[in-house]
Structure to design on (482 residues):
C-alpha cells in the first residue's frame, strides 16, 4: 500500500520534481505518467477505441438521485451517441479525437466533493478553513476547452499531458479537465484570493491508489507587485495561526536557471511571494495533520508550465514522504491575460483523495465511489475518523494474453477493463511480456484481480466479464489473443 501511495504522485503529473540524485525508480514515480507514457494514438486507433462505446445512454443511471437532480445541470445524466455527447446540459459534437466513455461520463454527476459527509469533502472543508477569506468555487462543469486546460496555462503544444492516451477528449477542442488549474485564469479575473475544488479526469492504470477520476483543490493569491514586500511582511506577522503546533520544515530549494525567477519580476517581490506561499501552505498542512505532534515538511524544486519558480511539498507520514501538492509563483503571462498586469501571485494545486486515503486510513480508492451505507455512514462533517473495515470479499483472478501491435497502449487496455468490469476490477498488472525471436511480435500477459467492495463475486459472473473483455480487446485494439 505504501508504494501505491507514492505511485499516486502522478496526481499532479502536469509538472515534475527536480531532484538531484533521485533513484531511477523514484524519479519514474515522481515524473508520473507524463514522461513514461507519452505515446499518442493514431486517428485510426482512436476511432477503433471509440466505436464500441458509442450509442450508450444513461437514462436509467443508478447514480441519479431524484432529490439532487432538477435544476443542477451537472446532475443531469449524460448521453452519448456516435455524433454527439450531452453533459451538464450542453451538447458537443464528437470527432476523430473523442475517447471519453460512458463509464467516465457517468462519474461527472457524482460530485463527491459536495457531499458534506464524504471524506473528500471533509478534507476540502478543512483545507478551505485555512483560507477563510478566499472566494471558493466548486460547481464548475468538468467539460473545458483545451485552451483553458492547456494553452492558457502555457503548456507547450507537445506537452505529454495533452496525449489522448492520458486525457479524455469529447472532441479536438473540448475535454474533461485534467486539473483544477484549468479554471485559474477565469477565477483570477474575478478575485485576488481564490479556491477551486473540482473532479478531474485522467486516463490511468488500475490499482488501489489510481482511479480515472479524482478531486483537486486549487488556490491562488495575488498581491500588488509594487507593495508586495511590505504587505506580505505585515500579513505574515499578523498571522495568528502561525503558532499552531510545531512544524519542522526542510527547504533546500534554490532559485537557479533550472527553476528560475521570471525576468519581469522584482527579486524582493518574488521572494516575498514565495515566502507567503510556503508560509500559507505550511499552516494549511499543520491544520490538516493537527494530530501529528511533530509534523515534518519538506520543500523540493519542481517544474510546472504555469509557475516559475515552482515547488512541491512533501510531508513525512508514518515513515514515508508523501507528495502533497505542487505550487509556485504564477507566470506573469497568465496574470496579464487575467487583466492583472500589476499583480504578482502564487498558486497551488493538490489531490484530495491522496490526503483522504492517508488521513482516514482508507485502503482502496474505489471506496470513495462506493454507495454502500457501511462506507458513507461512517463519517461526519469536519471530522477526521479512521475508516473501519467492513468485510473484504474474496478476489477472483483472471489472466489475458495477447500479441500487441504498434498502437498498443496500456491505458487503452485499462479503459476497456473499466468499461467491461467497472469498479469490480481491483488491479490490472502486467505479469509477463516477451518478444518472439522470429516474428518480433510482442506478447503481453495481464492479470486482472476482480473483487467487489460490497459483495461476493461468482466465478461464473467473472467468466462472463472476462469473455466480454476478450472480445472487446480484439474488437477495439485489434490485437490477437493468445
Ligand atoms: N495543476 C497541477 C497538476 O495537476 C498542480 C499544480 C501545480 C497547481 C502548481 C498549481 C501550481 O496551481 O501552481 O499537476
Amino acid at each position: 500500500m505504501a508504494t501505491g501511495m507514492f505511485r499516486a504522485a502522478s496526481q499532479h503529473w502536469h509538472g515534475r520534481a527536480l531532484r538531484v540524485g533521485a533513484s531511477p525508480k523514484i524519479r519514474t514515480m515522481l515524473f508520473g505518467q507524463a514522461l513514461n507514457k507519452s505515446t499518442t494514438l493514431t486517428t485510426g486507433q482512436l476511432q477503433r477505441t471509440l466505436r464500441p462505446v458509442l450509442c450508450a445512454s444513461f437514462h436509467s443511471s443508478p447514480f441519479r438521485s431524484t432529490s439532487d437532480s432538477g435544476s443542477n445541470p451537472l446532475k443531469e445524466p449524460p448521453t452519448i451517441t456516435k455524433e454527439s455527447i450531452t453533459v451538464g446540459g450542453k451538447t458537443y459534437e464528437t470527432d476523430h479525437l473523442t475517447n471519453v466513455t460512458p463509464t467516465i461520463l457517468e462519474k461527472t454527476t457524482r460530485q463527491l466533493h459536495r457531499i458534506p459527509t464524504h471524506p473528500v469533502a471533509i478534507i476540502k472543508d478543512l483545507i478551505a478553513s485555512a483560507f477563510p477569506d478566499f472566494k471558493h468555487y466548486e460547481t464548475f462543469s468538468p467539460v473545458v476547452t483545451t485552451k483553458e486546460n492547456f494553452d492558457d496555462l502555457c503548456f507547450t503544444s507537445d506537452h505529454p499531458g495533452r496525449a489522448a492516451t492520458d486525457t479524455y477528449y469529447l472532441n479536438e477542442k473540448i475535454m474533461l479537465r485534467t486539473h483544477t488549474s484549468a479554471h485559474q485564469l477565469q477565477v483570477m479575473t474575478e478575485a485576488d484570493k481564490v479556491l477551486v475544488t473540482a473532479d478531474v479526469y485522467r486516463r490511468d492504470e488500475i490499482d488501489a491508489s489510481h482511479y480515472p477520476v479524482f478531486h483537486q483543490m486549487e488556490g491562488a493569491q495575488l498581491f500588488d507587485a509594487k507593495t508586495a514586500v511590505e504587505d506580505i511582511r505585515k500579513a505574515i506577522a499578523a498571522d495568528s495561526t502561525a503558532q499552531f503546533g510545531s512544524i519542522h520544515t526542510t527547504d533546500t530549494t534554490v532559485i537557479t536557471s533550472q527553476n528560475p525567477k521570471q525576468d519581469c519580476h522584482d527579486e524582493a517581490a518574488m521572494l516575498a511571494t514565495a515566502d507567503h506561499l510556503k508560509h500559507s501552505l505550511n499552516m494549511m498542512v499543520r491544520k490538516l495533520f493537527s494530530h501529528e505532534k511533530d509534523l515534518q515538511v519538506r520543500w523540493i524544486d519542481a517544474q510546472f508550465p504555469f509557475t516559475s519558480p515552482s515547488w512541491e511539498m512533501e510531508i513525512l507520514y508514518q515513515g514515508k514522504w508523501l507528495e502533497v501538492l505542487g505550487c509556485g509563483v504564477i507566470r506573469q503571462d497568465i496574470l496579464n491575460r487575467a487583466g492583472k498586469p500589476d499583480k504578482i501571485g502564487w498558486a497551488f494545486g493538490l489531490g484530495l483523495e491522496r490526503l483522504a486515503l492517508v488521513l482516514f486510513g482508507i485502503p482502496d480508492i474505489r471506496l470513495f465511489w462506493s454507495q454502500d451505507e457501511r462506507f458513507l455512514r461512517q463519517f461526519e462533517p469536519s471530522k477526521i475518523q479512521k475508516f473501519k473495515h467492513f468485510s473484504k470479499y474474496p478476489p477472483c483472478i483472471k489472466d489475458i494474453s495477447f500479441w500487441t501491435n504498434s498502437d498498443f497502449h496500456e491505458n487503452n487496455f485499462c479503459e476497456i477493463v473499466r468499461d467491461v468490469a467497472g469498479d469490480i476490477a481491483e488491479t490490472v498488472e502486467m505479469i509477463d511480456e516477451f518478444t518472439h525471436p522470429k516474428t518480433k511480435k510482442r506478447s503481453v500477459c495481464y492479470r486482472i484481480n476482480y473483487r467487489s467492495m460490497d459483495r461476493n463475486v461468482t466465478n461464473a459472473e467473472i467468466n462472463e466479464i472476462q469473455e466480454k473483455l476478450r472480445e472487446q480487446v480484439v474488437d477495439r485494439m485489434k490485437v490477437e489473443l493468445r
Notes: DSSP finds 14 helices and 18 strands in the chain.
